[in-house]
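DATA SHEET
Item: assembly model
Revision: 1
Owner: S.N.
Input lines:
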Amino acid sequence: MFKRLICFLLGFSLIFPLFPLPLLAFEPSAEDRILLNKIEKDTFQYFTRLSDKITGLTRDSSRAGSPSSVASTGFALAAYAIGGSRGWIAQDYAYARILTTLQTLRRKAAHQQGVFYHFLDVRTGNRVWGSEASSIDTALAVAGALLTARYYPGTEIEKLAREIYERVNWKWMMNGSDFICMGWTPEGKFLPYYWDSYNELMILVALAIGSPTFPVPPGAWERWLRPEGDYNNHKIVYASTGSLFTYQFSHAYIDFRKLDDRGINFFENSREATLANRDYSMSFLGQYKGYSESSWGLSASLGPGGYKAYGGKPGGGLQDGTVAPYAALSSIVFTPEFSTKAARFFYDSYQKELYGNFGFRDAFNLDKQWWSDEYLGIDQGITLLMLENYLNGEIVWKKFMELPAIKKWIELTGLGTRSASTAVN
Amino acid sequence: MLAVIVPLLLINFVALAGLYFGIWSKVLETFSNEQTLNDLVTASRMVEYDQARHPAPNRNFSSLSFFMQTGKLSQRQREIFKGILDETNRSLLWKFSLLLFFLAWGTIFISHKIAGPLFRFSKAFNEVEAGDYRSRVILRKLDEGHPVAQEFNEAMEKTDHFLSDLKTLVQEKDAPQAVTKIKEKLSTVQTSANV
């Protein structure tokens, strides 16, 4: 009997590392949970305050004169649904805001073959700044729209969200290649950049494969590169910039914990990437004032010299002492303990300089005594959705994973059937 | 001399002051416009987003290449500042041309007024050295050095008369009387041969 027990425990300890840790392995204190909820609710306010009341289009940034970003608008759609379900705004108000926004996206927002232009005029929905019809930003907008369809099934919202999704010609966006092109402009046609290597592309490819109208071949999932690298014993498939957001955006909507991609579990990958990113910051302890055990987060953000693709290693590893609180917070589903500690540290230490009506501002740099006075829509969006998944029963994942498009993508790529052994919960 | 330098200095001062205040008032006016500021920041941000997503394009030589500081600007910022620089250069072109003309004219005018007389003096000294005491310095109306030329000419005229008198006395038939007169004349002249 004793031998059996020993064998069982030994076997369990060997198998356990194969399993992704459940989200609740770390339980934040009651105080921390209150803080995280406050941050989520305050972050949510960005979308109600910085979206146009008539069109619903959401500003890219809180800065005066900022155009709307279609990706931010997608996050806004998700935010209204979350805000309505959480009681932060009235349900009928949430419904009205979502409806208005979807009507704008369906009927007014400039697009090419259903692919929205990256930046739109807040009032008219016209293309601005010569921006490109952007595949990833369209995917983020569509993801937000489809999520609202799951929050309000059988309504006009669901109908409009489906129409917007079905209008997107993902196949056209491949431009006859093996990969989805990053963008298209009327002036130069297809950009010379393709989503051909690991980064935030997974949500885009998933929606493109799952499309009921213009699907890309399932092989498009297999083809993009999965470069492997190692930093401080964290071996991961990495994005070229090493920016933390690339490991987070797809995970805002898609629950990768049960999905196995040829032996790679991208949830685990993002957790390791977060740890590597934190370790990379820590390697500059003493060199830069901003980095510490609880102050980390290298991701594309504003900085003293403008918006840059800060990141860790493996990858570009660009850093100058700038810390983006959203980056640490948005990894909360991967590294709940470290992210919660970071949130607590940022809030307690820099509340006056860094925290405002919409939660944490984008970034800071202690060495240069620089504090961002801006919020960026997409950074607010990823913070909100990741906190919602963490604090509210993984609700976004649960709803999104039920979408027929996502089921189709999983089925066609075989992601769900390859390795039941790596699944959790 | 002063009548020339003072107007020239005034012209140059007015031109430079006009340029200085003209350029900077335009720059400040442009940058203090809120809409322009917002547009500039937004334009820069758009490019920074692109640069974060795509590799930076190669930079070509342009008017900004002379300014090292622009290396720290984003592509869009460089485009905007190149536009401002090119426009400023165009507007400055005729002003600088005018300034250059005035400077060239002033330089030539002054150099001619001084270099011309110096040349004439030099020529006169050479003629005297060669034994021609009829040489005189004749200056143009607006040349510098008229008083010196006048004194030089008076001195030359005296010397010319003195030597002419000596030459005349040498040709007299009464030699002893001629020698006495020559000695008398030479006694009024101070030379290094005085004992």
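QC remark: Chain B is about 75% helix and 0% strand.
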